[in-house]
Amino acid sequence: MKQLIVYIHGKGGSAEEAEHYKPLFSESDVIGFDYTANDPQSAKDEFSGYFDRVSVGYDSVILIANSIGAFFAMCSLSDKKIDGALFISPVVDMEKLISDMMRWAGVTEEELRDKKEIPTEFGEVLSYEYLCYVRDNPVRWDIPTYILYGENDDLTSFETISEFAERINAPLTVMKNGEHWFHTDEQMRFLDEWAKSVIS
Q1: pLDDT band (50, 70, 90) for residue 140
Q2: Of 58, 145, 181, 199, which is the most buried if we count CB atoms within 10 A?
């Protein structure tokens, strides 16, 4: 069986991170997606077109998606023929995350509606259009999925990830003392063992 694994990076990441997964899945073709989208609307066209091009000729396609990459994948690839997905620290409730960031920045919804966009001290630009879009377009995802979550994730609460995992019937693995960004040697070893255990 000819299998393709598509890696989708998170914010600030790159397609080159896919190289990490090649030794883990040496019998599959592993590629990274170097996307430019930074909102779900633009992701819809870019992700869908890319997937249609690269998946031709494969019997099986698996996604490995990180953080915001997982959110964009859910917004744009839910109707594709994907056999399974591995989500690492996925953003699963963007409306709640935007609301949290508004609270961190001391911005009310009325202010955001009036100004349309507000830069924050922590580097994010809050967008009223983005907030309205995610409210009006809730994520629907029924592709078999496994989720890896760090206990100390500072973007998504355990309650939020648990509710999402239960809703889509996804096994949830929690790394004790893990973070949103899996990057230390210990965290990467944990991630590798998890990934190998769910892709056979």
Answers
A1: very high
A2: 145
